[in-house]
Amino acid sequence: AVDTTKQQMFDIKPVVDIKKSPFDFTVLLYWMLPILLIAAGIFFYLRRKKIKREREKELPPYEEAIVALQELDKSDYLLQNKSKEYYSLLTTIVKRYLDREVDKSAQESTTDELIERLQEHKKAGHFDFDTEDIKKLESILKRADLVKFAKMQQASGQSEADRNAVEEIIHHTHEAIPEPTEEELL
């Protein structure tokens, strides 16, 4: 224990001048800034190149949908009584196709919103959709909603019929989409 009553007091020490700091941060900044900029440039260049390669590998919407339907056929969801997963994939396939080809917000839409927009496209003359195809799509999407959210059990064969109807709708929609003009291609 220190007894401060008996300890001698000392004066405050004077200020000591330092000529120069041994390490200069401005020099470090001048060296690091260009290195960081070059590294960021290389990173963004390689990232853009990777994204460009991925886009080139991406299939056209129609072919992607057909391939996805074939992969769905190979899955064993129906054999394992996983109707929810089966219908989730089926609706994702058709909505992704419609999202890429017809309506840019199809994947985020509810069934009623999507059907309403498809009917608006038909009325506006953007696409020549068959009214029967829109009705089929509506019934399939509503049935899928019941399977996914209300845990409805499907009758045997209904899932395959819905899958075939989705493929037919995709074929008809592909045929109904007008060919792009030269300006759109550019």
Break the fold down into its secondary structure elements and pairings.
Elements: H1 25-57, H2 61-74, H3 83-101, H4 111-124, H5 131-149, H6 158-176, H7 182-185
Helix pairs in contact: 2-3, 2-6, 3-5, 3-6, 4-5, 5-6
Main pleated sheet? none
What series of H and E elements makes up the topology?
HHHHHHH
CA-based shape: elongated
Q: Rg, please?
A: 33 Å
Quaternary assembly:
single chain
Structural class label: mainly alpha
Strand content: under 5%
N-end to C-end Cα span: 87 Å
Uncertain runs: none
| Share of residues in helices | 55-70%
The average pLDDT score comes to 86
Number of strands: 0
Q: Would you give an account of this structure?
A:
The structure is a single chain. The protein starts with 24 loop residues before the first helix and ends with a helix. With 186 residues, it is mainly α. It has seven helices and no strands.
Task: Write out key terms for the chains shown.
186 residues, mainly alpha, 7 helices, 66% helix, elongated
Concise structural overview:
Helix content is 66%, strand content 0%. The chain is mainly α and 186 residues long.
